[in-house]
Write a structure and sequence with these properties.
This protein is α/β, with parallel strands linked by helices. It has 13 helices and 16 strands. Helix content is 39%, strand content 16%. It has a seven-stranded mixed beta sheet with strand order 2-10-9-8-7-3-4, with helices on both faces. A three-stranded antiparallel beta sheet has the order 12-16-15, with helices on one face. Strand 5 and strand 6 form a beta hairpin. Helix 4 crosses helix 10 and helix 5 runs parallel beside helix 6. The model has no long low-confidence stretch (mean pLDDT 97). The protein binds pyridoxal-5'-phosphate (PLP). The site of pyridoxal-5'-phosphate (PLP) has 12 residues, from helix 5.
Length: 368
């Protein structure tokens, strides 16, 4: 398989474990395995103590699938446990072939368009619009971009990197457009539960539209990326069967300890999500103030969900140069928009970590 480097992941690989201040991660503050287990109840502790390091059920531990069903408004038969990134890889491989056209909401996490491209698909990037300091969905663009062979539309709400979240009406419109033509909808919901106003949480797409699949996981909202646990939900049993078969060629099944820790996490799901939301709320207030106080240097775009924001660097300096200087001079890592394959002079900041204010302070020092 020929696939281009994953620009964001390569950037992280270079700096994530060497710099002092990460100002760009998209995951929320993590916790220790012991702390996670202690709060999850005696039955989960028993499961953990009795854990055998054998192969696990390919579609996931029944208790985990039950918990996922509760989160997504589906039943356990309508989900399958895998590694989140693997969920994108396998679903695209099942759904697409080289004659297909795919429309991807953009900027986007690279695998959402790179895997379709590597399969030979024609990919149309459907960019969010900027309007008065906010991100907007360009519905007319989507309608105009459809082709005879459009097989798949890919969305991601809350959106990485902008933090954009559509209204329920806007999501309904996207579903109406895809359903009229029988087009499949892939909904990346890795940041679901991190809506800044929980009232604005959208229903998971498979509960609204049959020809769809959603990706969820524990990495962002629940702050547990090291578990490598995610899931695909869909009411299309053919799709889940095909993904399960293809998974035999990637990981076969999930890691046994991770599954038990994932069950523990979802037992405390709402508590963990609220912990992340409260860190995000606090950090976002700092970020907003920081960038609005420096209007001569930055343009601020208010996110409505997720754990990232995507402000713009003003002036003549290229954002790539700005980010490179920040990392070499102050050991602060910020992600330039070029790793999202756009060149708009924006950069991503991550607001989910407890040391955010310290890292922001370093950025202030760097700017001078
Ligand atoms: C939108 C989106 N989808 C999927 C993933 C993959 O999640 P993971 O890194 O846990 O595999 C990420 C990770 O950053 C993401 O931002």
């Amino acid at each position: 398989m020929k696939v281009r480097d994953f620009l964001l992941e390569r950037y992280f690989a270079k700096y994530e474990f060497t710099v002092k201040y990460l100002l760009s991660p998209s995951d929320c503050e993590s916790m220790g395995a012991e702390e996670l287990l202690q709060g999850s109840g005696p039955d989960i502790l028993e499961l953990w103590k009795g854990l055998r390091l054998s192969y696990t059920e390919s579609r996931g531990h029944p208790m985990l699938r039950e918990a996922i069903a509760g989160l997504s408004g589906t039943v356990p038969e309508e989900n399958l446990v895998l590694n989140p990134e693997e969920g994108i890889f396998l679903t695209m491989n099942v759904l697409l072939d080289g004659n297909d056209h795919v429309i991807v909401l953009s900027p986007a996490y690279q695998s959402l368009y790179e895997i379709p491209k590597s399969l030979g698909c024609e990919v149309t990037r459907w960019y969010l619009k900027k309007e008065k300091g906010a991100w907007k969905l360009d519905i007319p663009f989507l309608e105009g971009a459809l082709k005879e062979n459009t097989r798949l539309v890919i969305v991601n709400f809350p959106h990485n990197p902008t933090g954009f979240l559509p209204t329920e009406d806007e999501l309904s419109k996207v579903i109406e457009i895809t359903s009229k033509r029988g087009i499949f909808l892939f909904s990346d919901e890795m940041y679901r539960g991190l809506e800044h106003d929980p009232e604005k949480r959208l229903p998971s797409v498979p509960s609204l539209y049959r020809k769809s699949a959603a990706l969820g996981g524990l990495s962002k909202t629940y702050g547990l990326p090291g578990l490598r646990v995610g899931w695909i939900t869909s009411t299309d049993s053919w799709l889940l069967d095909r993904i399960a078969s293809l998974k035999d060629y990637t990981t076969i099944c999930s890691s046994a300890p991770s599954e038990i820790l994932a069950i523990a996490a979802l037992r405390r799901g709402e508590e963990l999500a609220e912990r992340s939301r409260s860190i995000v709320r606090e950090n976002l207030a700092l970020a907003r103030r920081f960038f609005l106080e420096r209007k001569d240097r930055f343009e601020w775009f208010e996110p409505q969900g997720g754990s990232t924001a995507f402000p713009r660097l003003l002036g003549n300096q290229h954002v790539k140069d700005f980010c490179e200087k920040a990392v070499t001079e102050k050991s602060v890592m910020i992600l330039p928009d070029t790793v999202f394959d756009v060149d708009w002079n924006h950069f991503r900041i991550g607001v989910g970590r407890e040391n955010f204010s310290e890292a922001l302070g370093k950025l202030a020092e760097f700017i001078g």
